[in-house]
Design a protein that fits this description.
The protein is an alpha+beta fold. The protein contains 17 helices and 23 strands. Strands 13, 14, 15, 21, 22 and 23 form a 6-stranded antiparallel beta sheet that branches. The protein has a 5-stranded antiparallel beta sheet with strand order 11-3-5-4-12. β16 and β17 form a beta hairpin. The radius of gyration is 25 Å and the shape is globular.
């Protein structure tokens, strides 16, 4: 991205934050605060270009405002920056929280969820009664269509803001999925770091295929969204007192507080620190998603006056019991789990033989011919972006199902490493096939326990086979030291000729399809091994999607 385009993105950010017609002088002042020394004349020049592109529009003498197209550009324009922005957004909301729990006045951080069914209100009330929420305080606002209702709820980040106002710094670490057995929280099963994703972590997990909130309420066992933060150990007792006071006025959701330096729920707690786990503020709405209801969720997007909220129910009974003091095995992140498989790749690019890493997804044998037909059609329509190799695998326990193995892009890292070139998987992403292609979402392999491509598929974010605007496909970013670039390019070109879907080989300090790698390295973009599987899913075929499953000899693979 050029410096000029970077400036224009910053101008769009300013206009988006202003949310009203804004003049060039104010924009120039805001740019200066951001480190851009641009005068009003230069701002007007950039604004003219933005007008021509349709990203802004002039509103008479009042100035300019951002358009819907401009907002779309803003969302996609700095995706590498968005990976850091998510964490900074939460820090901003924490700072803006000024709620005083003694007189119950001030601003709290809120989530806003839109539901489209009047009956959902009664269901929500029942879920809030179970205690699986941060607070029963909500605001219901009918929007336009009488069946469209905005539900404002308190975000757990409010508690971080309250603690900060009391001089206690909390560090948001992870959002994830928490396993509950016999009404007791056991351990986190999946995590995403707040610092390494363009998706808000809990939003990434807000899917009916991943949570089972209703089972926790009715059966005592299941999976709920939760998050995790750290505070200094010296603040533990004062924090507990504040949390008890908050609980008495209806703000809670605390699952567990560790002892100083003691691991909790499968997560490490450093010496001198205390870990706190809290129910995800979107938990009630995940329960609605499990019922098949359509919901739009915005997490920690704004602050609201606490007095604008009121309890949705006055009857709350806690569903969860205290945790048992058991040292659960630490939750391994995806990249840590993958290195052993990566090292076992021994594919010989000359002989086209040797082991590669595969994903294996399972379908009913009755759907086999249809699924293979979809894969073939998807490849024929876009051979540049789809890997053509697959293998049918017997299901380990179910004779009525068949597995479809596809080549995982981590095989490329394994091949390079096997040839003396260090290659580190950096991001799993969602790539929009504009001209040029651009990543619109990225999740770090080192900051998640679940394959990013599984998340994108579970949230139906792809359009691999559907003609809904530009295609959105799965891709990954790898980071390689610049000194090995010449040899790496030779190997990657051969892999691409074989059909391994190498989309882009970058240069030092170059954004690769808008993704950023560290200095003195270059990035490569490779196709995700689940693209053809995603096409099957998009066509409505019931398929159990799996990633990074096992090693298979490349010579045993079939080609579409």
């Amino acid at each position: 991205m050029s410096e000029s385009e970077h400036r224009m993105i910053e101008i769009l950010r300013i206009l988006n934050a202003q949310n009203k017609p804004t003049g060039s002088k104010l924009i120039a002042d805001e740019l200066k605060n951001k480190g851009f020394n641009l005068g009003e004349r230069a701002v007007r020049y950039h604004m003219q270009i933005l007008d021509e592109k349709g990203y802004t529009e002039r509103m008479g003498y009042s100035g300019r405002q951002i358009t819907d197209l401009g907002r779309e550009k803003l969302e996609k324009g700095l995706i590498y920056d968005q990976v850091d922005f998510i964490h900074s957004k939460f820090e901003e909301m924490i700072y803006l929280t000024d709620f005083n729990y003694i007189n119950q006045s001030g601003n709290v951080v809120v989530n806003t969820s839109t539901i489209y069914n009047e009956e959902s209100i009664n269901i929500l009330e029942h879920i809030f009664e179970s205690g699986l929420s941060v607070s029963p305080y909500v605001n219901l606002n009918r929007v336009g269509n009488k069946d469209e209702i905005e539900v404002t709820t308190i975000c757990g980040t409010t508690i971080d803001g309250i603690l900060l106002n009391e001089g206690i710094p909390s560090q948001l670490q992870y959002g994830g999925l928490l396993k509950v057995e016999d009404s007791r929280p056991v351990k986190f099963t999946e995590l995403i770091s707040y610092k390494k994703t363009s998706l808000t972590p809990l939003d990434a997990f807000a899917n009916s295929n991943l949570t089972s909130v209703l089972d926790v309420i009715t059966k005592g066992s299941g999976i709920i969204p939760a998050n995790f933060r750290l505070i200094p150990g010296v603040s533990r007792q004062k924090t507990i007192e504040i949390l008890n006071n908050l609980d008495r006025i209806g703000i809670g959701g605390i699952i567990a507080i560790s002892e100083e330096g003691k691991d909790i729920l499968g997560l490490p707690v450093p010496d001198g620190m205390v870990g706190i786990s809290m129910i995800g503020g979107i938990t009630p709405f995940c329960a609605l998603k499990e019922l098949g209801q359509e919901i739009d969720i915005k997490i920690a997007e704004e602050i609201k006056d606490f007095k604008s909220l009121s309890p949705i129910t006055s009857s709350i009974s806690s569903t969860l019991n205290p945790i048992k003091e058991i040292n659960e095995p630490k939750v391994p992140f995806l990249l840590s789990k993958s290195w052993n498989l990566i090292q076992q790749v021994n594919f010989d690019v000359e002989k086209r033989k040797g082991d590669i890493i595969t994903n294996i997804s399972y379908i009913s044998k009755d759907d086999q011919d249809n699924a293979l037909g979809i894969m073939e059609e998807t490849y024929n329509n876009n051979p540049k972006f789809i890997n053509p190799y697959y293998k049918l695998i017997d299901h380990p326990t179910d004779d009525e199902k068949i597995g479809i193995a596809t080549i995982c892009s981590l095989s490329i890292d394994g091949l390079l490493i096997n040839n003396g070139i260090m290659s580190t998987p950096k991001y799993g992403g969602l790539l929009e096939l504009t001209e040029p292609p651009l990543f619109i979402d990225l999740i770090s392999y080192n900051g998640t326990t679940l394959d990013p491509h599984i998340i994108f598929l579970s949230k139906k974010m792809t359009s691999i086979s559907r003609n809904i605007g530009p295609n959105k496909i799965l891709a990954s970013v790898k980071e390689i030291p610049y000194i090995s670039r010449d040899y790496a390019v030779q190997l990657l070109d051969r892999l691409n000729n074989i059909g391994f879907s190498i989309y882009k080989i970058g240069k030092p300090r170059e954004l690769v399809y808008n993704a950023k790698v560290d200095n003195y390295n270059f990035g490569i973009v490779a196709g995700g091994g689940l693209n053809s599987i995603g096409a099957i899913k998009e066509k409505g075929v019931d398929i159990e999607v799996k990633a990074i499953e096992k090693l298979i000899p490349f010579e045993d693979m079939d080609r579409l």
